[in-house]
Design a protein that fits this description.
heterodimer; A: 261 residues; four-stranded antiparallel β-sheet; 25% strand; B: mainly alpha; MetI-like fold
Chain lengths: 261, 234
């Protein structure tokens, strides 16, 4: 049995009673969970179950209606340590550096080269020198097996390559955790694998990851824990062997019977 | 008879005789254009940023700017800025104010065309996919960094062909600054006319001169920017 030390007792990400309302629509209705350092957590569930919104609330691309997210014990939404004052946008920007995000649509900046995309934030946000950032960028591109594409523009790459560049861009900020929002959903099946291979390698290297995905194979084999979301609540959670092998919830069982061949 | 007149109109010897004095006038068109274009871009960008702002009063201010200046005839604006604006300012500041004709021309043409640039900037800004901005926010970039590093570099590439069109109109509009006695090409054509009484060849020569300048300018920008612009497209 793994005994948590004092430092490790603080989870990398802690989500507490998160609610998100869009008008009259309750998308998240009280979600709480922890992600320990080095863990890979997959979030599965039907479209509209709230999993993408949950991910976007974690790095505050969406502002939660209530609840709090803690990164290494630091609250995202307010200053903490008894100071209930809401964080300014500048402070939230500071905290976002620690969370790498990978989007369904890649969202590379088309006017910059591959390397330019990767080193932009390290230079502008972390204040690195160009030389330092370039070395780091090349290292990150090597991790996604695209070092030879560093001078290309994104429009010249396949979808799978673009998504791997997006992963390298997020890694270059040396984040405490990586958030993946359906990273393979807009890729042709034959391009999905190259992205999943990279993600599995990151997982094996001990990267803390939250992955919203429809790839049940990845969720089952690469994650430490699986969350099944339904109607804005965590309906089922546990190690993949349990969620996939013996789900307690009827809805989870139905979802899996539809999505697992 | 008709062909005599035509032959006279197409005979550019008079224009050629006065080429030095006339082309020195063209320099004023170019100066006025460069200064007015700079004003238009700066003010147009500011107005566009107002128009995409979250705050309604700011959006409204941007819209007023665009409607006011885009709908003002440049001819009237030049005259108004030169003769009326100094009176208004003089009244406000309680002193006599006079504008140099060149300054009036730059202000008038700068503001009129800022209305066009504002709209071009705005549509360019709104065409940037939200995901590009979210990716930048997720990296911790500030809104100012996103504007200058992510949004505007793409906007400029997308809007360049349209911007060239506006520049062409703006350059051609500098033909009216002779109205307030900026000694430009048209002004000098008028001066030569009083001596030579040959309007047709002089106007043909002036038209040809403007055509060549515009044609070379637009062609050069297109040729130099094409690769750079199209890199962003698949």
């Amino acid at each position: 049995m793994h005994v948590e030390s004092g430092v490790d007792a603080v989870p990398a990400i802690r989500v507490v009673d998160l609610h998100k309302r869009f008008g009259t629509l309750d998308v998240l209705r009280g979600v709480s969970f922890d992600v320990r350092r080095g863990d890979v957590v997959s979030m599965i569930g039907a479209s509209g179950s709230g999993k993408s919104t949950l991910l976007r609330c974690i790095n505050r691309l969406e502002t939660p209606s209530s609840g709090e997210v803690y990164i290494d014990g630091e609250p995202m939404g307010h200053r903490g340590q008894g100071d209930a004052k809401a964080r300014s946008l500048a402070e939230i920007n500071m905290m976002r550096r620690d969370l790498g995000m990978v989007f369904q649509q890649f969202n590379l900046w088309p006017h910059m080269t591959v390397l330019g995309n990767v080193i932009e934030a390290p230079i502008r946000v972390r204040g690195m020198s160009r030389r330092e950032a370039t070395a780091l960028g090349e290292e990150c591109l090597a991790r996604v097996h695209l070092e030879e594409k560093s001078k290309e523009y994104p429009a010249r790459l396949s979808g799978g390559q673009q998504q791997r560049v997006a992963i390298a861009r997020a890694l270059a900020m040396r984040p405490k955790a990586m958030l993946f929002d359906e990273p393979t959903s807009s890729l042709d099946p034959e391009l999905t694998d190259e992205v999943l291979v990279v993600m599995r390698e990151l997982a094996a290297d001990g990267t803390t990851m939250i992955v919203v995905t429809h790839e049940m194979g990845f969720a089952r084999e690469a994650s430490d824990r699986v969350l099944f979301l339904h109607n804005g609540l965590i309906e089922e959670e546990g190690p993949p062997s349990q969620v996939f092998g013996a789900p307690k919830s009827e809805r989870c069982r139905q979802f899996l019977s539809k999505h697992v061949q | 008879m008709v062909s005599d007149a035509l032959a006279e109109a197409l005979d550019l010897t008079t224009f050629w005789e006065y080429r030095e004095v006339l082309l020195r006038g063209l320099a004023f068109n170019v100066y006025t254009f460069l200064a007015a274009a700079t004003v238009s871009i700066a003010i147009g960008l500011a107005a566009a940023l107002l128009r995409v702002n979250r705050l309604r009063p700011l959006r409204w201010a941007g819209t007023v700017h665009v409607e006011l200046f885009r709908n003002a005839p440049d001819y009237i604006m030049v005259v108004w800025v030169h003769f009326v604006l100094p009176l208004l300012l003089g009244k406000l500041l309680g002193s006599r104010i006079e504008f140099d004709p060149f300054v009036s021309a730059v202000i008038a043409l700068g503001f009129v065309y800022s209305g066009y640039f504002a709209e071009t900037f705005r549509t360019g800004i709104q065409a940037i996919p939200l995901g590009h901005l979210e990716a930048a926010r997720a990296c911790g970039m500030s809104e100012r960094q996103i504007l200058w590093r992510i949004t505007l570099p793409q906007v400029v590439r997308r809007m360049l062909p349209e911007a060239v069109n506006i520049f062409v109109s703006q350059f051609k509009a500098t033909t009216i600054i002779s109205l307030i006695a900026v000694p430009d090409l048209m002004y000098r054509v008028g001066m030569v006319l009083q001596q030579e009484m040959k309007p047709l060849p002089l106007y043909t020569g002036a038209a040809l001169t403007y055509f060549i300048v515009v044609y070379l300018f637009a062609g050069t920008v297109r040729a130099l920017s094409e690769r750079w612009r199209n890199r962003i497209y698949a």
